[in-house]
Amino acid sequence: MLVKNPILNPTSKTHSEEHFTHTEVQLANRNSGIALETLRHDITPIGMHYLLSHFDIPYVEDENDWQLKIGGLVNNPITLDMQALKSLPQITQQVTLECAGNGRALLKPHWPSMPWTYEAVGTSEWKGTRLIDILKQANIKPEATEWVFSGADSGVDSGVQHDFARSLSIEMANNPDIMLAWEINGQPLPPQHGYPLRMIVPGWYGMASVKWLNQIEAIDYEFQGHQQVGTYVYKQDNDDKGIPVTSIRVKSLMVPPGIPDWYTRKRLLQSGETTLHGRAWSGFGTPIIKVEVGIGETGDDWHEAELFPANDKYAWSRWQIKWNAVAGYHPLRCRATDANGDVQPLEPPWDKSGFGNNCVQVTEVWVEDDLSS
Ligand SMILES: Nc1nc2c(c(=O)[nH]1)N[C@H]1C(S)=C(S)[C@@H](COP(=O)(O)O)O[C@H]1N2
Ligand SMILES: [Mo]
C-alpha cells in the first residue's frame, strides 16, 4: 500500500485547550527565549537573545565563500561577497526585535506552534550597511513592484516546501534604516542569528529580518511565498482574508522582582520599599510616552512609572517605579502607551495563530515580612 508522505500531506492543525504537546516542547527547546531578568540590560547579551529559526541553521564554514545575489527585474544585477559588503559605508543601530508569535501560549485556546509566553524579545547593537544603497546600485526596473529577500535555509511548513523568504514593497524597502548586518554587539553574527549576513528591518516583528540572506530579487507581482502569505497574517479564523503582520505592537515587560520559585517562576519578595524595573517598546520607531504599573488583584490601581528615553530610535525604553511592598499576594501589571496613543490591552487580542499578543503582563509576587536567606 502506498503511504502518503505526512510531511507533504499534513493533517491540518487545530486549536488546543490542552497542555503543550511533545512537539511544542521540542520547538521551545530549539528556539529559546530571553530570561526575563536580562531585561535589566540595555543590550541583551549575545547568547541570551531569543531565537526563532524555522528550519535548520545553515552550516557556513567561511564567510569568504558567501555571496549575496541581487537580480530579477533590475538593470544591473550584482553579486556581492562579504568583503564587498564590508567596504560599503557602515552603520550601527540598537534595535529591539520581537517575534510576532510572542505571547501565543497565553491565548486560550492556543494555536499549536512555538509556545512563547513573554520572552521572544531582545535588543542588540547591529552593525552593517544600508539596504537602500545596494538596491540603488542594482537599479530596479520601472515595472517592478516588490523586492523578495531569501535566506539559505529551507524546509517544509504546512506541507509547503520553500526557502525562507519575505518581500517588502519598493516603498518599504527604501526605508534607510533597514540594514544588512554582519555584527551583533561587536561580534560576528553567531550561526543561529544569521551568520554571515542578515537583514534587520527595525520596527517590524522579527519575521521580516531575514537571516542567512543570500538573494534579493525584484518582481512585478505580489509575492506568494509561504512565509509571506501562508503565515504572518492576522486572521480571526480560517475564512478570514486577513491583514499582513508588519509593525510591532506597543508592549512592556517587568523584570521579575525578588526571587523565583524554580518550578512556577512565581516570585517571593521581602516587604518594604523596592524598585520595579522594566522595558517598553513599540513598532516603526514610535516612542513610548507612558508606562503604568498596576498593583493589586483587581489590576485597576495604576501608577505612572518613571520613563527613560530610548538609546536609539528602534530600541526599547527603560522604566522604573518605587513600590512599598506589604505582606501578601500581589499580581503586578505593566502597561505601555506609545506616541500614537496605542495602549496595551488587558486581555490577549484574539488571533487565530496567536500573532501580535501585546496584552499586559502579570507577574505574581508573594511578599513576606521576614524572608530568611
Ligand atoms: N532565514 C530565516 N530568517 C528568519 C527566520 C528564519 O526562520 N529563517 N525567522 C524569522 C523570525 S520569525 C524571527 S522572530 C527572527 C528571529 O531572529 P533571531 O533568531 O536572530 O532572534 O528571524 C527571522 N528571520
Ligand atoms: Mo518570529
Task: Break the fold down into its secondary structure elements and pairings.
Elements: H1 22-30, E1 67-72, E2 78-81, H2 82-86, E3 91-98, E4 121-130, H3 131-138, E5 146-157, E6 160-169, H4 170-173, E7 179-184, E8 187-188, E9 198-200, E10 213-219, H5 226-230, E11 233-234, E12 243-244, E13 251-254, E14 259-260, E15 267-270, E16 272-281, E17 288-295, E18 302-304, E19 306-307, E20 317-325, E21 328-338, E22 361-368
Parallel strand pairs: 1-10, 15-22
Antiparallel strand pairs: 1-2, 3-4, 4-7, 5-6, 5-10, 7-8, 7-9, 11-12, 13-16, 14-15, 16-20, 17-18, 17-21, 19-20, 21-22
Bound molecules: the ligand Nc1nc2c(c(=O)[nH]1)N[C@H]1C(S)=C(S)[C@@H](COP(=O)(O)O)O[C@H]1N2 and molybdenum atom.
The ligand Nc1nc2c(c(=O)[nH]1)N[C@H]1C(S)=C(S)[C@@H](COP(=O)(O)O)O[C@H]1N2 binds next to strand 5.
